[in-house]
């Protein structure tokens, strides 16, 4: 038997194998799979020889006459002597066979040339035998492990991660989302393990020749895309829950962490039921399994019926995990289960419309968490956080449309970004608000029913929603969703609406242009958006009405049309557009309107402006000051009201924006003035929230707990009041505990802040103590908190040692955790230059460390984009990128965005540094004297 690794394109003995001349990155369309029968035998007992082998039988319908079968296969050894091809129902007819095979390593194609032509209308069965090593590369079918502390040994499991294009690493297949088929999965493994797949177990029987091995066959799946196929062999424990409608719901984790799965096991079934009501469509499978995987490259993956998670996203411990971690678990479980409809039941035709999966799952997850935990106010907080994220990402010229053309497979992974998720979610929220609840639900239900078990594109969704909108009267009959929404999904960026009021005529003239952070680029002729205009006045204060009173329209040729709004109040009253940030656009007012808004915010009446719009005003004015449309004196006058503010959203908005300035100013001689300015801003809210004392248990509102942690983080960083001494005291008391792994006196809500502050102001012994706690911790969220905090050291040699540890493949830090640690070091006070030097000197070994997850290198580059602000450093980094193309493959988008962000920082330093410093000096001088 001769096995051939496709990537080597080595010649087989019995069949001629050549390099293919077919060089398009998409599969030919002559064939369509109907059903797969996949049998995988996995060997986990011998750590010296982890491997799997299997067979796949594919029933293939012929749509057009053809003489070849083109599949995807990557790093699989296919036994070419055992390939079989037969016509289904073709008894008595002459057989067919494979004459030769070809490979295309660029596109992972395995092409079988048939002896006779395959005829349209016929169905054939293709059988292939294959094998491969069970690697630890976190994609395809791979191995993971955990430590059994009682037995003092390493336990091994296997699991899949196929999205977007890695099913081909596990078995030969048509690995594109449009090729849906039914899957019959059979797993072979040692009987001490459990086998899981998308569907329930049909039968388990002994292996015919290997002692103590079994075959477990699973029921045939519903039609689905290859990227949703999943299976695992493991020795995990589980918590079962049964829904009223009979759906079995199980949550799996390693045995020594199963007690951390309680919350996910309770929350998951609740949100699944909520979606059945929201979509008006019953969950189509008989069971759902969700499993926490020790080594996992993504946060989670929505495989139909077998949802996989990184441990830190699924598992929650009331004793060791913060409320924020609990919220994170709820968000991600809600997101993945939303995919069971949006993505799994109805799947995009091609990755161009990935946002239909991710944007919808992100948005309706907010609805689901809001329904189950209304006290968290998730819908408001997450929706606005999504907007603040995309206001930054999408103001880059190097951003991309939501619906992004994909022209090579490597671009698919790059589309899993803020634009697909957060911007996708934001435009769906906008649509939900202007259509209303009834229309939105009716349109979604129609769409899901029409395309169930099929593939769709965004135009199909627009059609269903337009029909519903016209039926309910929520949209004028001369408007359609496609015209409106295409302006948001098919072009890059978002608009700023410039509002110029005529106070005598009581009108306002509105114009739009694309907002760009890069001030070297002209904004002229940068597109047009259909903008729903909601607004209110100082007298009216009707912020709850988010329905559009007017629309800004575009011409048929895509040009913007200015808009005049009439019957506005007089010159002594402000107006605010975009009630509760109901659509993703910025608003810049004339000087008088800003003056009126600043006066209200800096008075006892500041709460008369809705909390979301207070956040909007902060965000907009700081951005306009950054790009020069507003003076920093105006921006600082506005945000000085924060000394009164007690709500999370305005503070989050302000601190997120100020963090960009902090990264630059901390490296400059004038940081002392900035430090004084921040102290003055933070001190009132810090003292109001009782510092970092343990008051979490007495705070009922979830957002108040988050605010306390956020404020404490800034207070300790800028040495406000007693923050540093309190943090060091907490840490010292922890060190004095006889059993610090069981007893931790540090309040849960501020543990990360306390750890970081203590490491920054502490000794080598403090660092070693915390590192030991990391090694002994059994809760993934606690381990991540510790890893992040260890990067706070001010010792150069400690940071250097830490850098080397995170890229040690045999060390204590898991590969996915390194993507958190490296940015933490790069963002630390003394870590930036060390991390930059380390990356530049070791880019070759780092890229090999993450191979084949090339997108991981994007996470490694990202922190530098926020920290480089001089022409010299920018030019140096640009040269480094140019000289490292071989090690930075397939992340062109991340490189463009990083370099553009650095250039934007350089522009700010050259344009605004002096004026900003002067503005904060004026504010800080009194504070400096008092200190």
Automatic annotation (TrEMBL):
Organism per entry: Drosophila erecta
Residue ranges of every copy of the Aminopeptidase N-like N-terminal domain listed in the record: 33-228
Single GO biological process annotation from the record: proteolysis
Cofactor binding mode and count: Binds 1 zinc ion per subunit.
Signal sequence bounds: 1-16
Protein name as annotated: Aminopeptidase
PANTHER family listed in its UniProt record: AMINOPEPTIDASE-RELATED, PROTEASE M1 ZINC METALLOPROTEASE
Entry's EC annotation: 3.4.11.-
Catalytic activity from the UniProt record: Release of an N-terminal amino acid, Xaa-|-Yaa- from a peptide, amide or arylamide. Xaa is preferably Ala, but may be most amino acids including Pro (slow action). When a terminal hydrophobic residue is followed by a prolyl residue, the two may be released as an intact Xaa-Pro dipeptide
Name of the encoding gene: Dere\GG12025
UniProt-listed SUPFAM superfamilies: Leukotriene A4 hydrolase N-terminal domain, Metalloproteases ('zincins'), catalytic domain
Pfam family, one: ERAP1_C
Domain ERAP1-like C-terminal: 574-902
Subcellular location as annotated: Cell membrane; Membrane
